[in-house]
Give the backbone structure.
Amino acid sequence: MKQAWYRESLVYQIYPRSFQDSNGDGIGDLPGILSRIPYLQELGVDVVWLSPVYASPNDDNGYDISDYRDIHPDFGTMEDMKRLIGALHAAKIKIVMDLVVNHTSDEHPWFQASRRGEEPYKNFYHWQPKKRNWTSFFGGEAWTYDDVRKEYYLHLFSKKQPDLNWDHPQVMVEVQNIMRFWLDLGIDGFRCDVINLIGKETGDPNGRFSPILCGIEHYLNHPKTHRYLQTIRDEVISKYDCFTVGETGFVNPDTAMQYVDEDIRELDMLFQFEHMGVDNYYVKWFMRKFKPIRLKKNLSEWQHAMHQHGWNALYLENHDQPRSISRFGDPKYHEQSAKMLATMMFFQQGTPFVYQGQELGMPNASFEHLEEYRDIETKNIYKTGKKLGFSHRRMMKKIRMMSRDNARTPMPWDNTVYAGFSKAEPWISFTPGWETRNVQNESADKKSVLAFYRKLIQLRKHSKTIHYGDYQDIDFGNPTFYAYRRMLDQDEWIIVCNFSNKPHPLPNYANWSDFNLVLSNEENQEMMSPYGARVYQKK
Ligand code: ISL
Ligand code: CA
């Protein structure tokens, strides 16, 4: 496997609205991020990924962009952005921005011109005189009538996020120019939002009937998408020292390979979603009991599939997902299971992405009342659920488990009022428990989840075996243990994770006297403790 800086990096995702407020309006901002660079350095972060900070009416928290070359006043100014890029680089931290080009905001001047039928924007979006039965990812219909144009337009997400028509050659030109604009400002790459949905066949009438994601066969991993991405790679990406990570729902290892194969490299790596589905059926609102074996089988499959040919983006959390400890861990063994999950992920092959607060072991916010939620998806799903006849109680139960707001709460820095996040009440409430689970406390505690993450990050940083070595499952059929080996030349590591709330004797996976225990989350090493995790390296 060819070596590359982004394959040896730890990426830290910042959700700017909730990281650090600098001017007392309760909303995180760019100067706030800048002030926290020392924290990122101490953690060992190599690359920061910023969720969108562009001009936006904020229908979907910035994933609805009205100007790709400007900063939303909530976050600061373009000058603040340049200062942040400079300060991060001075601290030897790279920065990746979100590229959201499947859709724009309906308030983007292109859409405004398009609905009035003005060239060259008339066909920048998908317009049809007749309605289609497609459904939106956020619940409800995906085609909405526009009073001005007197036609229907496509929006796979909210009504205020019309989908761009990539068949229009000028759309491709515009996107390339936006990318160059940011790369020339010095950024180091892009996280490409829902990038496997950009190519579409909207002339087709209706979708094959399905109450969820009806119409998906007209746009998921469309061959056109591959052509678009190849063009972008040739024209833009290949000319800069940068990397791309695609957000690609509904890919499996085969379809993923068509994007990331070493010989194709439309994208450098991608976020797959299969392991986010191990506690639900097809879409997250249809929940099922979490079984560790499903997670293990899936992660292992991706390890094998990408090895030598592609590259994994490793993650357990982001701004769209519930907190991993609340899904795959055990609240009774909170710290222990948070560290175990981190260990499981950190020694696999791929680039690890840590989402802000994950390193503190933050659980779901699980707000009690619907009014406390801010996310458009949550609000839409509630309405859709009620229409389908689900009770309020049932819907709130789902929302407390699965709402995206579970992970979008402010970063708790200390136990002063508003947690050192802001001087004013934040735009969304804190995750309960912040008075103790915060950066200040965890920094002072050698046994904290944060201290453990710092160790993991350092261990990984210095090991070529972890970056590039072979991966091998151990005791694959075992439903409670996830164990694997990483090997390069003479170097060998064994990772053992106990996914159960019971102690177990350490299995005979090796002649343990030949190995050093380099890291563990346990106090007592006689038995593997509940949610114990151990990392061994051959002497
Ligand atoms: O969040 C999801 C399920 O709860 C996903 O369906 C999510 O909408 C999908 O992964 C796409 O996510 C990305 O694009 C959306 C935006 O709302 C998300 O925040 C973003 O990560 C539309 O831009
Ligand atoms: Ca602010």
About this structure: The chain has three domains: 5-103+169-370+407-460, 371-402, 468-538.
